[in-house]
């Protein structure tokens, strides 16, 4: 062998050894999981990512929660603590790295983690990514155990501990950093999930942690303009300096059981939005910071995203230092993850909390003293006007507003002249559809009308007996299977009102469904036409809501199974024309 050839071989060997020594090793730990009720024997196969409800359902231990009124019969699940475990191997490629950590991309929500019997983490935030050093605990064969504690019991306990100081909410969900719609919303069931809802990885590396190196912020060519003018104060977006009318809707989580949302389901929904002429979606603050699939698709489809932080309709316990630090970490994790997406054009602190504080009657309902009222408002200011914007600004330069609606609730005249508006005169207050013509805002960030989903969707959650009855409508209300799929407190009452106002007298349930969809279509047509033809007064139309998390009567234009209501085609025609 020549000297030159030997030298070349030696150099190549050194290069290979160097690459092997410094390479980043990631081991996926989503396989071979089992679950059990805590303290019970009898481990069963689990799916990761997943939820306790979907695991129980896979073993026929609970009924299908979406069928008829089965929601009621699965409420015991959220009262229990649940255990998940798996075994995994760590070979030399992992054990010889300088650093080894477990990475939990999503634990829902209160979880104690054990590695080979040693406690390594107490998680308390569904939205955070947890990095746990474990090199000192690993051996060739390892056991990973996670105990999920009941979120429902936790929030009830936290609320009792706060007494006599009451933080307003319709339930105690605001004590948990967890998707708020899990606790019930007026379009969502009470389904308080728990489990490993995102991937788990074993990350081994030398030198800097490659999973902590984040992409820089995407270039932002979209600006929100808020300026005093002859009407009041503007609220519109410019793209490359050009005022642009925003057309779209509010986005809610696509499933009660989040791991069931595949890239294909995201694509189907977002392509439908694009086909309907959308250029913006608002990710609503009672759900989740969405999957990377969502933002990747919005980037590719040129759909802008108004991104709420995950707070909605409650006063959160920001006087608690631990809560604030938890939120700081949550904001950091998600802004660092999401800042690379060009689709995101606005950060918003919360949904409707300032409006709720002033306009929802909390002070009377909860008998809040003036002294406590000051404390509550200070908690609001601390969280949404200090902590969250400060944390966002550390990592991204895109604009931030503390809440939506920004200035005034819809009961105030200024709501039509200043900032964005959630216009609920129609539906909530019972005003006729034509009232939209008298209430043109600067930017409509919420408004809408309910309708039942399509007949083929109703067939999936009801029995034939449920469906085949004659009117009047009060028979619908008496049917538990139908009633459980209408979550608004006055839903049936309001639907009856708008059917009557628009001249409908359905004789069958099928007619009733079709008529509610016709009313919804008329309502959105009236509102959108009025807003889009306001000579620049209104510069944005985001109706409530685009999609659903389960089969339900709601404001959506596409139901849980992807079936389009009549209003979808009405919106498509209007948005595509401008």
UniProtKB/TrEMBL annotation:
Residues 33-198 form the Beta-mannosidase-like galactose-binding domain. It is found in: Lysosome. Residues 1-23 form the signal peptide. Its EC number is 3.2.1.25. Pfam families: Glyco_hydro_2_N2. Keywords: Glycoprotein, Glycosidase, Hydrolase, Lysosome, Signal. GO terms for molecular function: beta-mannosidase activity. It catalyses: Hydrolysis of terminal, non-reducing beta-D-mannose residues in beta-D-mannosides. The keyword Hydrolase applies. GO terms for biological process: glycoprotein catabolic process. It is an enzyme of class 3 (hydrolase). GO terms for cellular component: lysosome. This is beta-mannosidase. The lineage of its organism: Bacteria, Pseudomonadati, Bacteroidota, Chitinophagia, Chitinophagales.
